[in-house]
Structure formats: C-alpha cells, structure tokens
Batch of 2 targets.
Target 1
Amino acid sequence: MKITGVLGLGKEHTRSTWDQHVDQGHLREMALNIWGEDSSGMMTDFEPSDSLLMKYENNIMNCEKALRDNRVLDMGCNHGLYSYMAMRHGAGHVVGVEPRGLFVNGLNTFADQNDLPMEFHRGYDTDTARLVREHSIDTVMLMSVDDITGWESMMYDIRKSDVQWLIMQVTTLPDPWLGFNEDIFNYAKTGAGMPVGFTLHYEAHNSNTRSGMNPMHRDMADPDTGYQHIGPDGKLDMESSHVIHSLRSRQYMRKFIDHVGFTVESSKVQETPIANSPSRSASNGLYQWYLLRNKK
Amino acid sequence: MSFPTTISVTARVDMQDQFEGFVSNKSLPGARVILGDQSHEHRFTQPGEEHRFTVTADLERGKHDVVLEFMDVAEAQGAIEVLSLHLNGCPMGAVIYQCEYRPFHLDEALQSHLYMGWPGRWSMTIQAPSHENHGGVGFG
C-alpha cells in the first residue's frame, strides 16, 4: 500500500531510496567529526524525520539529472548531509560552503578519512561568483538561504556564470497573504505599473544557528559556531542581537527567476505542513522547490 | 521507543571577590545535572573553576527537563553560572536563556537567569527526539 502524505512520491518510496543511498556508518562518522562524542547516542539508531525525507526527495532524488557526474556547489551546506547525499546520488565532486568552522572542519576530516570526492570551505553568499569559477561548478544547490542572504545577487552571479543547473529550496509566501489597497492602484495609474509580488521583512533576535550570516556583524561571529555578539566576557549580548530577514512572495520569486533568465525545469510547492518540525517553513507548509536550467 | 540523548552543561563557580570578608566564609558548592533518570555530580574545588557536566539518558518522545541544582541547601556557598548547553554535541547558544531558576529559599521562579547567586535549581526544557524538535541539532 502506498503511503501518501507530506512526501509527493510516497513516504515508502522516498525512505526506500534513502536507505539504498545512505551509509549509516558514514552518518555516524560525520556526526562524530562535527559534534563529537556527545552525538553518539543520537546517531545510534538514527531515523530520518519526515522533514528530512521531504528535503531529500525534493532537493536530491528529484534532481538527480542535475547532480549525476557533475561538479556541485552546495552554498550554505550546514551539516553537509545534502552535500553527502548529492555525492551518493552520483555527483562527481561536491564543494560545500558554510561560514561555521564547526561544520567545515568536521566535514573535511570526514571526507578525508573516507576518501570521498567532497571538500568544504568557510565562505559566504558573497563568494558565489568566485567559487563557481574557481571550482568549475556545473550545479549549484541553494537550500534555505533565500531569507538570510542577498538572494537576488546570488541569482545574478549564477546566471552570468557557466553553471548549468540550479537546485533551490526556498520559503515563499502565498500571494493572497497581502492584498493591494487603493493607493497601490492610484500609484500604478501614474505609470509605475502594478507590483509583481512582495517581500516581507522581519526583525528577529540574531541569536540562532544562522546568526553568522548577518552581514552587519559578520566579523563578530564566533568562527566555530557562528553565534554572534559574544562579548569579551564570553557572554551573549542579547540586547544588541538583531537581524532583518526577508521572505518573498511566490509570484515575485517566479517573476525574478524569469527576469534573470533561468528556465524552469520543474517547480513544486510543499503540499502539506509537517507537524513538529524545527523548521518554521516546513511546519507552515511554505517550502517551494525549483530545478532551474541556466541555458545560454 | 526511547531516544538516547546527551546534554552537556558547562558551568563556572563564582566565589565573588575573595578579598572581601563577607564572602570569605562561603564554601565551594557542589552541583548535579539531571536528565531523565541519569545524573552527573561535581564538587568545585577552586574559585573560577569551570566544569562540563555530561549526562546521557534514554528519553521517551516528548518534553523533558535539563536540571542543574546545588547539592547543598545552605546559603553560604559560592555562586554558579551556567555558561553553555550542548545538546547531542550541538552548541545551543542563546537557547539557554529559555530557562528558569528557582532559589531554594524563594517560592518563585526567575526567568532567563544563568547566574545562580543563591543555592537553587536551574532548569530548561528540551524535547526528544532532539533532531526533530530543535533547530540546529543533528541531521534535522
């Protein structure tokens, strides 16, 4: 019996494909090199969550033609799991980029120990153009970096490069969330035209695991953990810790992709929210996936 | 089904100014960290000492408290400051401020206090399995 739900291909099929490609020993070793001995218990009988399988299905399984035999750049690779899975699905070489030394150092040790075609570097979104050039990248993965980085700039950089494929996981807001009032229409009549979507900006504490991306205080981030505003006394500066992050509407995202000139190979909106996910996007059903071609 | 979960709490003892007479009679405290049915005890032996308490427990799915408490209730003890928390090896950063501190002699909970000037009980809630419930923990 096919189980349907949050995973478009059926949970059983996705899980079966995961099992065929993952080496549990590798996962334990990755965790050990990143998080140390404290991770051993967690990894003893590790089971991928629905949220993880959903990302795996949409960023890796469904994009295998963009991965196989290609040189892949995983921008904002975090713990490197999807870099690893890209490699297990046939990528010829994977370059993972991430600001946090905790991940970069651990993943390089893991890759070296197992002689895997992966390398990891400390870097930021602003390094994209240089990285795709220096590493002769065919495929770029941008998973959940749209809300915290200069996403549009990255898209321009990738479009102008020799990259062939772009795999994206983004958080997009449904267009009905915002309606336009009379002032918008009046302004349109002056020649401005109607808006092609919207971006919402949120102020938040800059105290989570992605804090190191904040361009304003990047130099104050702990190079290992990425946490910011760690004062000379070692304490977190809760008062000064703020960040603005931005979420784009679905219409704007699509318009921008068209504007830059990518060809949409496939696109999918998250079908069902995932309860109990640590990801706000997943639990609110706001993920969207794109597979784009960079045709010249 | 239970989920093996490891927490590490790093704490530092503060004997305040050793040259001040009013604190010189304070003793170095001992503390224990509790998770599920497991615990780790340590008695500090010198001013300013840092100690990493590590406990692994099999937790059922759901919410559980991480507790750091003084081993003695006597008030004439040095203070203990919680510096950091690692959940399955993952540094949790400012999440430690989502805690409460209950001094033994007060009938109230103080929120977001990491410095325990009085003997008492510090706790915060985690949720098992951690990689499904906490951002930045494991392969979530």
Target 2
Amino acid sequence: MVMPDFTYLRPHSLAEACALASRFGGDAAFIAGGTELIPDFHRERETARHLIALDGLGELRGIAVEHGELRIGALTTVADVAASPLVRNRLEALADAARAIGSAQIRSLATIGGNFCRAVACADTPPAAIAGGARVHLAGPMGVRELAAEEFFVGPRRTVLATGELLVAIALPPQRSGSGSSYQRFSRRKGSSLAVAAVAVRLTLTSGRITGARLALGAVGPVPLLVVRAAEMLEGELPSTALFAKAAMLCADEALPITDVRGSADFRRELVGVLARRALEEAVARAAVGQP
Amino acid sequence: MSGEVLVRLNVNGEHHTLALKPNTTLLSALRTHLGLTGTKKGCGTGDCGACTVQVDGRPVNSCLLLAVAAEGKRITTIEGLSHDGELHPLQQAFVKHGAVQCGYCTSGALMASKALIDRNDAPTSDEIREALSGNLCRCATYPRMLKAVAGWKEFEGVPFDARPHVHAERDQQRDHSVVSHGVTRYDAPDKVTGRAKYTADIQLPDTVVGKILGSPIAHGLIRRIDVSKARALSGVLAVITGADVPDAWYGVSPAREDEQILAKERVRYVGDEIAAVAAVDLETAERALRLIEVEFEELPAVFDPVSAMASGAPVIHPEKPRYAGNINTRVDWHFGDVTQGFAEADLVREQRFVGNRTYQSPMEPHAALARWEHHGDRLTLWSSTQTPHYLHRSLSRVLDIPMGNIRVIRPAVGGGFGAKAEATPLDFCAAILSKITGRPVAMEYTREEMYLHFRGRHKQYIDLKIGVKKDGTITAVEHRVVLDGGAYTSYGVITAYYAGSMLPTLYKIPNYKYDGTRVYTNLPASGAFRGHGVPQPRFAFESLLDMIAEELGLDPFDIRFRNAMEPNTRTGNALDISSCEFMETLRRARETSGWTAKKGKLPPGKGIGVGCGGFVSGAGYPIYRSDFPHSNAMIRVHEDGTGVTLHIAASEIGQGSDTVLVQIAAEELGVPYEWVWMAECDTTLSPLDLGSYSSRVTLMGGNAVKMAAQNVTAQLCEVAARELGCDPGALTAKDGRIFVKEHSTVGMDWAAAARIAFSKKGPVVGTGCYTPPRHLGGEFKGGTVGTSPAYSFSTAVAEVTVDLETGYVTVDRFTDYSDAGTVINPVTLHGQVEGAIIMGLGETLLEDTIVDAGGRFANANLHDYLIPTICETPEIHTAAVESYEPRGPFGAKEIGEGSLLPVLGAIANAIYDACGVRVTELPITPEKILRGLKERALRGSDSALVGGEVA
C-alpha cells in the first residue's frame, strides 16, 4: 500500500519537538530511522498525519560516559551501538543484541530509541538493556523523567510515553567488576531474521560466587520480561550446571509466549529454557575474566 | 500538486532539486523522478535489499528512507559505482566469478558490498555474510558473491575488457573453441551496472498506473459492485469490473480453462480479482480501489484438499459439473502388476509424507506494461514472463485479437522459477485499461500480491509404498498423491501427472501404480515451480528408500546402486531414457564426500545423507496440441561480416540461457563468442520458442540455434569454396576463419566470406528449428507428461549439524555430481546447481505458507516467508560427470531444475543420521525435530518418526 499523505516537520530543538508532538497529539509520530514506521504505514498499522523528524536533534545522538553512566542517545543507530567498544565493555549483551537486528542496511538506519519506542515484542535491544539494569531518560512538555528500562514497556507497541514526550537516552549504570553478560536469541534462519525467543543475562561474580544477577526475556511476552525469581534464586550461589538448569526452568515458567507464524507457545517456552542456560553459561564465563 | 516540498538530493555527486511529496521514499525519488532505475524494488519493506544504496557511505534500504530525510546526505547508487566507463573492481569481480544470474538483486548486493569494503577492504567470509545478510538472492548466487567480494582486490587497476570474454574455467576437454568454456555471461556487464532494463524500469511518456482489487473473502458470490465513487475520483482514468472483460474462460492448460480476468459472479480465494483501475499514479489508483463498493454473499470455504473432497464440502466450481466433488484432475496409472510385485518382495514399507506450499519468490515482482499503437489496433505488451509465446497466445484468445496484432516483448527478467510461466491478470488488465485510456498502462504486483497470484508449489499428501527384495532390489511401488490445487487449474493437470511420471526415471521400478488427485480449494491456485510436481514425491521416495535400507542393513548408496537407471532404458511408464550416467554420479558423490569414513561415524548432532534426482530436458509436447517446432532460431550476419545477430524468443530469466545459446551459435558458426549479439526477445523480431520452463532451452533452443548456424555456415562455405576453388564439403569454420579441414592454412577470413556472400545475394540469414522426436511416450491417458528427448541425473550428499537442544539445523556441506551431458558453460552450470541446492535447503527447512482461519496467508512477506540468505550458504562442491547426450546440441542436456530434486531427501536423510529423527512433513522445522528428540528420549529408542500415519 502506498503511504498516506503526511507532513514532515523538522524541529531544531527538543523543546520544539515536544511542542509539535503535543500540538498534534495522536495525529503525530516521531520518526528516527523509520525502519519500523515506514513498513507500518504500508501495512496500514501507522496512521500519523504528521511526522516529526528527530534527525535535527544532535543532542540525542552519540554514546558517552556521564557521571559514571554510559549514556546512549536515543538517535544512535543500532550499527553504532553494535560497534561501540564503550557499549561492549559495559554490557556485551547489548552490543550483541544490536548486532542481531535485521541486516546491515537496517542497522545503518534503525536507532536504539526506535527499537524501544516502537515496542515490538521481539525487539532485541530492550531485553539486553533491561538485563544490564538500564534506565531510560524521557523528556516532554512536563519536563524530564527517568525510569527503569523494564518500566518503559506497557504492552505490544505501547510504552509509558505520554503525548509529546520522547525517549532521550538509554543509560547503563557502571558495571561492577566481575560482571559479564550475554544475549542469546533463537531465530528460524541465520541471516536477517526476527527473534522467536531471546534471553539476556547479566551476572556479577565475587570470589566465584554470584553476587548480582539480572535476567530478561524477549519475544515471549507482550513486553520484555524481567525474571526476578530466577535472579533471586541465583544470588549468593556458586555457579553450577544444576543451578543454571533450575534458573533456566524458572525463566521458562515466567515466559508468556503466544503461538504465531514464527513458532508455537510451547516451542518458545522450551527455547527460553535452553537460551537461558546458554546465556548464564556465557555470562559467567565473561564475568570470570574480570572478577575480583 | 499540493503538499509537495522541495528536496535537494546529492546523488552520485550531482545535485538535484525535486518537488516531492513528503511520503516519497528515496527509492521512488531515484527511480521515478531521477530515472535511476538500477536501484530495484523487491519488497518495499526493507526485507530484500534490492534497493540498497549508500547514504554517507553506509548501506541503507532506500525503500525505508524518506527522500526528505536524505537531504544533505551523500547518496551513491549503482549508477555511481563505475567511473568514466570503467567498472569498479567489485563489479568486475561479480562478472568474473559468475556472481550474476537474474541480476535483480545485483545492484543492491554490489552497493552493500561496496559499503563493506569501504570500511574493511579485506573482509573475511563471516564479515561478508554479515554485510550481505539483508540482500536476498533467489538464484542464490551466494557462493559466488562470497568469492567475488573476498577477491575484489584482484581486479583493482585492471582495465575491464567490456567484451564478454573466455573465462579460464573449463570442464571438458573436447576440441571446442567456445562451448564447454566458462565464458563471461552475456548479460553480466549490463546487470552489474544497473543498465539492464526490467519491465518496471521501462518508462514511456504519459504512462498511467493500473492496479487490481482482490477479494477480501475466500469464497462468495458478488451481489453488487458500485464503482461510481472510484470513477469520480480525480486522477482516475478507467475502472473495470467483470462486466467489462471478455466472457471467455481461459487458463494456460487448455484441458481446464477455468479462469476469468475479473470475477463475473463468484470469488474463490482471498485475492481473486474483482476490478481494476487506471489512474495517474499509484497512490490515486490505490485510493480508487478503496472506493469500490462490493457486496458479497459469503459462502463456506475450504482450505485443504482432504476436506474439499468430503461430501457436503463447498463446491468451488459449481458451473462446471465435471469438477464435482472439487476434483480437478484424477490420474490412475498401473504399469506391471503391483500386487504381484509386493508379493515377491521381502520387505514392504509404506509411509505418509506431507509437503509444503512453497513460493518461487523471484526477487523481481511480476510487471506488465501495455500500449496500443498503429491505429489503436495493435497491442504491445512488455511483460516479465518466462513464456512469451503462451502469453502471446493467451492474449490473442482472451482478447479476441489475432496474434499478428500483438507484440510481446520480454525485457530482462528477475527470476521466475515457474512463477512467470503463464499470462497473469496484470497482462490482461494492462492491455484492457490501456485500450480504454488510450495511454500506456504500467502494472506490477506488490510482494504480498505475489503470494496471491504467483502459482506456487502444490502441497502434496503422499502415501508411498515400496516393496524390495532382501538385497534392496525394488519389486513394486505404489504412489498415492492428493494435491492441493487451490482455486484454479493453472499448470495443475500437468503437475498431477508429473508427480507420478518422474519417479520411475531414476530407479528401475518393474511394477508401478500411481493414483493422483488434484483438488480445488479456496486458496490461491497452485502451479509450476522448479521441479514441477516432483520435489515432494522425490523427497518421499529418497526418505523411504533410506528407511528401507536401514531396516535391511544396507548402505544407502548400495540400495541406490542396486536400482539405478541405466542408459537406453524404457521405463515402465514408457519414457525413453537415452544417455544416463546416474551410476557415475553416485560413485563420484560417494567418493568425494568421504561417505565411507563419515556415514554412521559422526558424533551426535552431526549427520550425512544422500539424495538423488533428475529431470526432463524439455517437455516432449507443448502445453497445447500443435505440430509446429518447439524452438526456432534465426541468425542474421551483419553486412560487413564482423558480427551476427541471433534471434530466438527463448527467455533469459537468470538461468544463463542467452549465454548458452550465444555460445552454441558462436561454436557452430566458427566465430568468436563476442561476435554474437542476442536480439531482444520480441515476437516481431524473434521466432517462436515455447519459453523457459521444463528445462528446455539448452537442448531445444540449442538445437534450433545450432541448425540456424549450420545453415549460415553452409552458405558461407559455398561462397568460400568458389573463392578457394574447392569443394564446400571440404571446408570448416572455426575461430573466425573458413578453411580446408585437411589443410588449415588454405582458407579465408570468415568476415571476408560473409561480405562476398552479402554482395552476391543480399542478406545472409540462416534459420533453424527443433521438434522433439515424434510419438514420445505411451498410448495411455497422460502418457505425454514426463516425456522428453533426454533426462538429467544427479546425486547429492548433504552434511548437517543439528542443535540437539533447539532442533536448529545447519547445513554444513553439499557435494553434488550431475549428469548434464556436455557442459556448455561450467560457470553457469555451477551457479545453477549451487542455486538449486540453496533453494532446496530453504524448501526443506524454512519455507511454508501459513493459512489463517479465513484463508489468508499469515506470512505473505519476506520476513516471515523465509528464503535462504547468504548466511545459510553451505560449503558446496559441484561437478559434472563425463556424459554425452546424442539428442542434445554438442551432447548437452538439462541442468539446474533437476538439481533441486536430490536436495530435500539428502538433507532429510542427513538429519536422521545426525539425530535419529525422521521427519516426514515438510518443512523440517526445529520444532518438529525437537518433538522427535523428546519422543526418542521418552521411549529410550534410537529413532523417532515425526509426521502423519498412512491414511
């Protein structure tokens, strides 16, 4: 389907962007990379009459350390996130998740902010960021606010963003020494594919014992799922095959998969168990390298 | 027009200012507004990569980027890759490594590769795979792209020889100057530069856009159509419905003409054509479609053939009583006596197999462009077709105008695989709308529409029973198939016959019974797809043969050797096998793959399997009854003797047939390859050829071309003989000279002879034609299907890794040996076989269409209908065995279509070897494998079967 007519607005400041979005309300959509939004127009899933282009807002772009946090501007392309040594040093899982998205062409356009804000259930970067304890910075007509990444998602294609509000950055807290992370994803083919199930894990080891754990699931629920029970179970324990099997089972239990063209709910649940164990194993191996 | 904004674009170093609506994509701006049609549209949703351009050096899908958003950025398209006529080294590498087939993905793949080497000039194989994972290529030229990108630097600073020249690779040692040499593809230079024009690239002044309205429901009667609002919309030039099109029923198969251009009364599947509009642009045309009001009386629908045959099922073609019970075609064959054959067997095994509904998915969507000329009584139609003649004939019959008043032009075609082998509603509607509007009408399908209107693979339900002696000798085979035909016949009658006729060509089957039933359902019609009807039965047969071998304790190769076809054999169903080196393909594949060291000796999760296959080299009979030659060629010598033009309406669709035909012409004429021009495929210039289907062009077109060349050579030898004072019979032509065979120094230049001939008697033209041997096949109903002058044979060995926890299958390696007769071009041969292996891999592991409760396809797009990417490419070894087919030109026969057939069985057998799970339903998904692994564990057994029981 040909895209409907829309106006294309190019604000030069965050405030202007928010003002435009507030003015047009539900008739407006922000556009960054457009890799989700443009196909959504074709599929008649997007109906915005006004597109507010964010590409003029340089302050939303780039990766930098600020006050100990690694701040990834929402307009940073996923290609840049995947290639960034800063991101990889802090959270390997996020770099791997960014690299898993689509194709080289998609990664050159798509932004991490778009990956969050379009809130597709199988999006790759959100579970990785959640496992890494990321926080999201929002700005809107009512000012700025900040929340945990897992609180950003409300449902499939739905986020907490209020009218006129936009995602400014994703911030990764400093990683304690002895931390390691992993993003494991299953898809039906190797090249350019969408996740059928995904698990992100970050572990911290102190003297060989797990002193911090966060696990998040992707593509197996309406939103990325933080698996608190598994994390609590792991804390304080020594890594072992049996322990990871138990944690993996908890992850599988917590998954809320559906059956669709990419796989059945049962298959997805089973995948979560396998991927969780593999993610734990990789994370612990990575953590072991730098532990005190 | 209102709403336009000025957009400044920097494309290939040139600055353009365009007035565009903000919803214009960069792709559309490049193609429509700047005429840079080298950038292709394959999907419009960022899934295929055909539209890749560089923006500030990075690769992007130009279909996903708004033109306004590209302002101020540096845009490079394929047209900007070569400078001052010099090809970029990458372009040269693509040409020289044979990384170009249909060419539709080539621009995008080159631009993605360019973006890679700009950052990393010595990429590894893994880096190339990652960079090109978003560039889908249905010809699956991936192995060659990997080589080309890895080796691009070899071409740095090398001036490109624009002439197609002789490549070093040679497979055969015969004394040929052009044939059997891996010459550069004839069409490659145009395809790597984006110059090759596909139908949708042709831009005529005043062209308007046509679009078809499809049914939203699967089955129903049209009670009312109101097009008044659509007609009233500004910019709409014409709206037509069933009332405005001829009443004639048509179909590519004259045995069952059951289609109409636009539905007159009944719709039979979601997408069935109801109305069409012509408007000033696509946006207006689509808006007009939405204004057409249709009231239906919705009827119950049926989406699988077994339910469709049940009593009380909805009747899909009630106006045609012969299709009672929704039975479209029934085949009932019995050769020998299977009852006795099974009685003689030591082991009889029977198994149900179920296939998948797969789609050809060529990268180029079907397109048509129609224009009426002369006094408005002559139609010219440009169409993306594999079969210009059948299209020509259908247009004539349906529109009721003589073929002489219709000119069909087949521009470059971006892949077909069977999807473009018949006239489509686009062709008819473009013609009718152009007549009404008096303007050229351009139409093309969206990717989604391709799934609705391209006739994909029939899903088959197969009950196969094989009886063997203890030593593996086959005593009888009983083969029962139900085919899901969808709503119309298309090629389906022939499919139903092919599904049975081809099994006995590979192994000797003394007693054979085949029962085939093609059934109508309320789904898009099924048709012809590479391997036409045979891949699923072949998958079943190769799987069951392995199951039997295991039960008897035989090696899978041994049971195949035991039954393998031999040369000069008449099969039980009266097919004449002439040349046959099947045994040799088995021997070589076993040896090269390291079978003996690997079979049964690989670690858990690793497996090896063999599969075999083969196909016809052209059908023995055309689709409709006629006596004319199947291929016809004309060669005209240029007046000064320095070139010749070959005219033949054969269809280059990516398989390399133009190159092969030019090679045959050059060899037989005795001139260099680069002397031969291939004339555009245009029915006013090119003599009839039935087209590119059933693997017919090399043998049939090749024979016609060879004969035309012989005719020219005879004329020139006569002239030369007079000049040289010798007998014409003593002369031969080779490498641009005509000389005495016994005294090669006595002779003259070929060009000089041609000039004298022209001076003496005017144009030097040679014609040739080819008719298959008469009376092929048996005297029983359907005995013509499966007949061919020659058959190909091949053996493939697959090696796989199965992830025992997720069921994910990685195909690691393939070894394939083919009997293709004399190899005309080893580079295109390897490209075709590699492509068939990768396509077969997709069909075995990935591809299926998922139908929802309302009869809609839930995955009609390229991110959920998964075709293989470059990342799925295994290590592939392909080779041809020494062979000579007496009926083929220079001894050649089929390759490429038959190469798909061994793949499914080989992978299925390798998976079983790897993990003990036998999956009998395609595709073999991780989910099914996991189910089998769990069952194995539960029962504590070595193996498990996943799939249905015999009905």
